[in-house]
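Task 17 of the worksheet. Students: predict the tertiary structure of the chain below and write it out as structure tokens. Keep your answer in the requested format; marks are given for formatting as well as content.
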Amino acid sequence: MSNEVAVVTAQLSKRFGQRVAVDALDLHIPCGTVYGLVGPNGAGKTTTIGMLLGLIAPSSGAARIFGHDVQRATAQALRSVGAMIEAPAFYPYLSAYNNLRVLASTRGLTTARIDTVLTLVELSTRKRDRFSTFSQGMKQRLALAAALLADPQLIILDEPTNGLDPAGTVEMRKLVQQLAAGGRTIVLCSHQLHEVEQLCERVAILHSGRLVAEGRIADLVQQRHVIEVDVLEGIEQAQTLLATIAWVRSVERDAMRLRVYAPPERAAEINRVLTSAGVAVAAIGLAESSLESVFLELTK
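Model answer:
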């Protein structure tokens, strides 16, 4: 595998009894990319992360990190990986520094980077304070510091802003941007689609265990414009008629407005089709597209 690729999965699958949690997942994550992994609850995101970290054995397929098979060469695959995947769990009566010192000892790491990572997450002035005195945002930042102890080149973050207030959310996003600017590869799993769109270059969208879209966010959004049609009369007729057209992916109704998922250059043709059928069209135009609109279309 090329050194320019951080993560590759090939037909990666996981079944729990009769339930398929992840189904033949193919991912290709370039080095230095901030990569979003999104999907509804139960889509397979957490299971995928578990397989990437060697915590869950796949039923079939493989995952490789920096060229090393996660199942066959776990230590080599994970030595350059840091992860923040659960709520912060530290000793409440120990200081931030001593919690990291204990963690470094259990992982066979030196204490040399503790001050470095505490400075990076802006906790250096609180390093002697007990963990129990920290706000939720500070606890999350300490968890990120723990993930950075081994100076990883791949960082996996599962809902890093979960439970944070607006100020804490802004701080965490700033830290992710700083890490990305340093050339690290970041896999960001989040329900906050605006956050993913803001931070990530590429995204994989999972639904019911399957990959339904993958690529540059800008490209995915560009490919899925929505044409909005405001109808004065004949809304049901218009919806039925448009749903029969081959190049219309889907049609949604909201009161007297139709959201038509179709190529943007077809807007004039949609207008002609509807007016020819006697539908009274009040207005037609392109809606502003976003990762959220793409996500909702692909996972409904």
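Marker's comment: The first strand starts at residue 5 and ends at 16. The mean pLDDT is 93.
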